[in-house]
Amino acid sequence: MYIPPKFIMPESSVLDFLKTFPFGLLISAESSDIRATHIPLEIKETKETFSILGHIAAANPHCEFLSKDVEHLTVFNGPHSYVSASWYKNINVSTWNYQAIHVYGKIRILTDSELVEVLTAMLEKYETGRENAVTMNSVPEKMQTAYLKEIVGFEFFPTRIEAKSKLSQNRSKHDFQSVVSNLEKEEDGMAKEVAAEMRKLKK
Question: pTM here?
């Protein structure tokens, strides 16, 4: 990913970003054969680093790549929005503000027991507080066994990270504030999210 110096996301922000926007894109390639799958991904932290946990359908042809010794890529996208050049003081071109992280790495297939742990944690995370919350214990054992045969779990170990936060940092103070103000006026909720991220830069 092309990242001009002004748009480098601080390393300290990477983990929070990945946790906030966990629905990612897993990409694997070998020669000219490329596979891509959109899936929820979870972050597993250790004292020194982190790994990424996920699972895909066993019937997905992408599974063939998971056990290969190739470099995989996970892509995480944050808020993004169109930025009109009409918001600048001087004539210029329109652009798009956005945040994204590319994580490259290797994959290890999870055992059945590890996969159960991951699914249990995901349900606890997303079901807690819901009425009639679904837990692994509430799913009949026979159904669990059947569904576990239909998915493949994996742990993704990062080898390099590219993190970009393109939020008008290259614009003048006037233009930056104008972009924020105009994004906040947009009806699109994501535009407002971009404006909120931009305001954080000035705190």
Answer: 0.92
